[in-house]
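REVIEWER CHECKLIST
Item 1: Sequence provided? yes
Item 2: Single chain? yes
Item 3: Sequence as submitted:
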Amino acid sequence: MNRKIIYALAIIFIVLLAGAGCGKKQDLEEKAKETGAKVFQKMKTTAHQDNLLYLKNKINTYKRQNGKYPDSLQKLVDEGFIDKIPEPPAGMQYQYDPSTGAVTLK
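Item 4: Structure as written out by the authors:
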């Protein structure tokens, strides 16, 4: 995740440098804010997708070792497969189906 932040900051810095001296300062600041907001939103989306993939991998690892899917996501924590359940995006929650091992955000 740290690498993604560094790349995002580098992109913002490059955009600011490329636009320096071109057009009005206000336009440059506006474009930088828009670009920064887009990069930040993309990073958040990527982080949530990474969390889902992480959970899916741990669910499958649990199944390989125990012959069945965990009864709940909390079971992954209780049995040491993960330290904690990742935070879902604001206003959303993880939906887990122990019969199929499917986990989604809703």
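Item 5: Key structural point noted by reviewer: The two ends are 23 Å apart (CA to CA).
Item 6: Recommendation: ____
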